[in-house]
Structure formats: structure tokens, C-alpha cells
Amino acid sequence: MTKIGISILSSDLLNLEKEIKSIEQSNVDYIHIDVMDGHFVPNITFGPDIVAQIKRVTNIPLDVHLMINHPEKYIETFASVGADILTVHYEACDQLDEVLSLIRRHGCKPGLAIKPTTNIESIKKYLDKVSLVLQMTVEPGFGGQTFIEDTLENLQVLNQYRSNHHLNYMIEVDGGINNITGKICANAGTDVLAVGSYYINALNREKAIQELKK
Questions:
Q1: CATH code of domain 1-211
Q2: 37 part of the active site
Q3: Which of 38, 87, 127, 144 could form a disulfide linkage to 44, CB 3.0–4.6 angstroms apart?
Q4: Binding-site residue set for a divalent metal cation
């Protein structure tokens, strides 16, 4: 069954603990935390203090997505405050092998993210070193965007490559995910749906999750 991660990017930040408790009631698999630095993407969001506070109030694994330049400078910090998965961007790393190894050394599962237009061939040599591949299905930086259908081919390639090479990384998508696009991604081989606005704005959040898992 497809796993669900709830992105807090569009949540009510003035009532974040209440939001986390609501997420817990929805029986999801991850809390997805988008960390942005205003340089790699044109937005600034959460830092390690927020991750630490979330970790204090929930046992749901934290899927921390670093949309930042020079992520190697912050791996130890985010690992120490409770990240379970640490995902870095291919486009932001000069020494990607070293960064992925650093994530493992600090006790987290390493994830590798790519933007919608990044050539999938460029990351294949790293796929035996990661626990998760995150395909951005919108341009990273802001929530509430429209799903980019051209990314579906990458999902199919990642799924086929995993099968052909007997690898076990999870495939995750992030951006524009709802009950319709989520099903399309799941059919293309996706394991984890990072869901933001569709869930946060739902009148019935539990029903929204049920629709995603159908």
C-alpha cells in the first residue's frame, strides 16, 4: 500500500502542535518537513529548532527535505534534532557521494531529490546508495502548485531501474498531490506521496487520506 507523508508547509503554523496531533489522528506514515534557505529555492521556511519541537510531540517518522545549498553543513544538526530521513538535492551537492555517506553516519536514511526538469540519467549512479528518491512534481519552493505531468516518465524509469538492478529505495513524489494525481503516481511505481494542501485544506482529513490510499 502507498505510504503517506503530510507536508506541513501549508499548515497553520500558529497552531503547529494542534496540526501535528491532527496528522497523528489521520494514520499517516511520515511528517514531511520542507527546509528552504531562500537561495536554492526562493522561499525560507523551517530550521532545526522546528524539527526538534515537532519531534518532541510525535512519534511519526520525520522526512526532512533539505531544499538548501551546501546541505553537508547541516546534516549533523538536523540528524541530532530528530530527522529520520534526510533528503538532499542532486542539484545542490558538489560531492554527493560524501553527503550521502555523511547522512548514514549520523544515523539517518539518505534520500536524493531532483527537480522536475533534471535528467534522470544523472542520478542513476547514486541509486544504490540511497533509501529514497524524491521526484519533485512541481518546481520546489511553494505549496499549492499544479502537478507537472511530464515527471511521470521519471517515476516509471525509477521503478523499472529499481526492479532491474534489485534495489530497494522508495520512490516519493512531492508537489500537487491529491486523490487523482496520487493514484496516477502510485500506478507509476511511487511508494510515498508527500501531500500538503490537499490534506491541510480538506474538510474531512481522515476521508482525504482514505481517498489517497484507495
A1: 3.20.20.70
A2: no
A3: 38
A4: 32, 34, 65, 174
